[in-house]
Amino acid sequence: xxxxxxxxxxxxxxxxxxxxxxxxxxxxxxxxxxxxxxxxxxxxxxxxxxxxxxxxxxxxxxxxxxxxxxxxxxxxxxxxxxxxxxxxxxxxxxxxxxxxxxxxxxxxxxxxxxxxxxxxxxxxxxxxxxxxxxxxxxxxxxxxxxxxxxxxxxxxxxxxxxxxxxxxxxxxxxxxxxxxxxxxxxxxxxxxxxxxxxxxxxxxxxxxxxxxxxxxxxxxxxxxxxxxxxxxxxxxxxxxxxxxxxxxxxxxxxxxxxxxxxxxxxxxxxxxxxxxxxxxxxxxxxxxxxxxxxxxxxxxxxxxxxxxxxxxxxxxxxxxxxxxxxxxxxxxxxxxxxxxxxxxxxxxxxxxxxxxxxxxxx
Length: 362
Hints:
The chain has helices at residues 3-13, 57-77, 113-131, 159-180, 187-203, 238-255, 271-286, 290-315, 321-327, 330-361, and strands spanning 16-23, 27-34, 37-44, 47-48, 51-52, 86-89, 96-100, 104-105, 140-146, 150-155, 208-211, 219-222, 225-228, 233-236. It is of the alpha+beta class. It is globular and about 60 Å long. It starts with a helix and ends with a helix.
């Protein structure tokens, strides 16, 4: 990050006292002050995941306007659960975001399992309440931006047809895995996947706004309350994002803990707290409704399937630098694959009964 870009952003936004906080995957961050108020300044990185990041006005405005919308909806649902101030500026010479200081990152190594559960529970409650706030977005999918229409979904048309096609693609992904690794086939996995896609087809009503990126680095503590930052929102089947959270915290972060992307977090050493956060999330999100639990578990299974599928695909093609940063080299990917396949088998065997119960109840 050039000193000139920092100076230009500070001057443009009227900020002072820049104190470097660190970097995420895509931005550098500083704590700054304006009118005696602590804020956070973020400036896009010039290079991310091993390659230069060109200026893209539409992509940046989609990201920042989506973040602004998400913060607004979160604060309508649970006051103070997201920064209450967020502004951004996008131009070829000066691009940045400024938001209220949300607190300090949660420390997975400093938590008891009880606190980890309660933290996950609060995050789950926030997610569920945000779904109940009207989002006002036309279209569905990840958010896009254009000069003509502003913020909108990436896709238009029949969302139910889109979801049905996605379900068929996911079943095809399992067939692809088994074609390349016949030993990974298991009848219980096939049955559980079929139940999961049937369940999502029945349960999906309308696209809701949800957040895909709730990694521990994006969960802050403000006093005794959770503050969520740096979201990756989309408008689609919200149970899918809940299932994504469960897969990340119960499997993905731990399995990929040694990759360049996640190494600094040392996730393997706090795996029990990650899993307790997932357990708490499901409790808070489901509100004790067993049908919601089944829906989320079904989506978690589909997310785990896609994790395995991604590994199989990466082994069959040239590995870009970005993917090596995320997943490790091919030796690491190949070594990890049997463990993930076993995780898929165990998950299907463990949760197939609750999925089957829901099938019978319908």
